[in-house]
Amino acid sequence: DHKLMNIKEYKTIIFDCDGVILNSNKIKTQAFRQTFSKYKKELVEEFISYHEANGGISRYEKIKFFVRKLAPKYKKFNEEKNYVFLLNLYSKICRESLYEAEVAEGLKFLRQINNETKWLIVSGGDQNELRDVFQKKGISKYFNGGIYGSPDKKKDIIHRELTNKNIIKPALFIGDSKLDFYAANSNKLDFIFLTDWTDFTEYKEFCSNNKIIFMKNINYILQSIEK
Asked: How far apart are CA 147 and CA 129, in angstroms?
């Protein structure tokens, strides 16, 4: 089951953003630490563990989890007020940090040799923020199929774009989390797991159990084409 087509034969390639296109997983963890810096250390650490174990889930869900499930353990807490405040604070810190994030090496070259294929971003990151950051970094132009993110969920975005024929099969999803694999799998897309920047420490076992091909990064995908 470990067979993938030659990458040039896919009609559509879908990329996750954090940990695939941008080296931004650590940036986002840091942004959460700053956002919650006024809270008890144990509370913040409990949240960071949850965040790292749930790669690809949107900030909307994560901050809801913080205000509804975690924070009340520590004190009485005005949920709604805090939710909006924390969301805005995180977004501000996050966007500024993402402007500085490293872009995957080999991306431009992969685009040149893969120029017949439609490319999309489907990310847990905030959609408006993604579009803004990609524009600033000069990489929006590669993604002629669009740049999509939260509040919509990944599997729903893929399903919607398949339905409106923006994603044409055969299609490949390139991701770095369990959620990416499940989003690809539930829509019957091929999948590659990139390991270089992932937050998911148990990826080897997960990939072998699910017969997933994994590679270090986009440069390795390039080399596999050129062989």
From this structure: 10
Question: CA-CA distance, 226 to 110, in Å (whole number)?
Answer: 11
The span from the CA of 60 to the CA of 42, in Å, is 22
Please give the C-alpha separations between residue 11 and each of 19, 28, 66, in angstroms, as whole numbers. 23, 31, 40
Ordered DSSP codes for 214-227: EESSHHHHHHHHH-
C-alpha span between 116 and 113 (Å, rounded): 8
> In this predicted model, what pLDDT tens digit does every residue of 55-85 receive, in sequence order?
889 999 999 999 999 988 877 667 777 899 9
Longest dimension (CA), the chain: 60
Instruction: Summarize pLDDT for 165-207 with one digit per residue, the tens.
Output: 999 999 999 999 999 999 999 999 999 999 999 999 999 999 9
Sign (positive/negative) of CA torsion 15, 219, 51, 80? negative
Q: Note the pLDDT of residue 81.
A: 79
